[in-house]
Amino acid sequence: MPHDAPEQPQIYLVTPPAFEIDAFAAKLSAVLDAQDVACLRLAHASADADEVERAADALREIAHARDVPLVIERHIGLVERLGLDGVHLTDGARSVRKARKDLGPDAILGAFCGASRHDGMNAGEIGADYIAFGPVGDSPLGDGTRAEHDLFAWWSQMIELPVVAEGALSVELVETLAPVTDFFAIGEEIWGADDPAAALAALTAPLR
Predict the structure, then answer these.
(1) 30-34 average pLDDT score
(2) Which domain CATH number covers 89?
């Protein structure tokens, strides 16, 4: 039976691609204490494995102390070793089957599928727990393709798998997409602010 997206989508927090651990830990703690967050994604882009592992260790303690699951972007091999809750894949359906086999049935497994309904359906069929589409706003990254409202509307009516909206979110987009998405993945929109918790509250005001 097709699911209906919830009236109030949940917040899925995403870290910056680079950060100083102690300073970011303080910001993250303040945000998690101020807002209900369903999940945290470590999106560290460093090629230094030790740096990524140190960040994961620090963020795991902060997140788990608040009963927030922590998933890591791309690094399937670090999930079990570091006691994380799952992985967020960025290559559509390509790595989903291997990730599910490696991590087992209980790990959270998400797949970012750009604006491709086809990739999203394929990823769901082979083991993804959620599908992320984006960017939903104008982003300098990528080829300019956006995940439009129609994609989320179709998905929320036809597909049971939870859907995540992400990328260049605005208050207006949050308001427009709220009826047709399950989660908003929010990161770049708030971390540059002097008060990220206040920035998150302002961005998600339409949800209250």
Answers:
(1) 98
(2) 3.20.20.70
- What is the C-alpha to C-alpha distance for residues 147 and 26, in angstroms, rounded to an integer? 33
d(CA 4, CA 181): 9
- Structural domain total, the chain: 1
Distances, alpha carbon 47 to alpha carbons 41, 51, 53, 75, in Å: 17, 8, 11, 11
Q: What is the pLDDT of residues 73-96, one digit of tens each?
A: 999 999 999 999 999 999 999 999
**Residue at 122 is within a domain:** yes
For residue 167, give the amino acid letter. Answer: G
For β-strands 39-42 and 10-14, DSSP reports them as parallel
Structural domain for 40, as ranges: 10-207
* Domain presence at residue 98: yes
Is residue 169, in this structure, part of any structural domain at all?
yes
Residue 89 has phi, psi (to 5 degrees) of: -95, 145
Q: What is the DSSP string of 67-99?
A: T--EEEES-TTHHHHTT--EEEESSTTTTHHHH
pLDDT digits (tens, 9 = 90+) for 117-171: 999 999 999 999 999 999 999 876 667 789 999 999 999 999 999 999 999 999 9
User: Does residue 89 fall inside a structural domain?
Assistant: yes
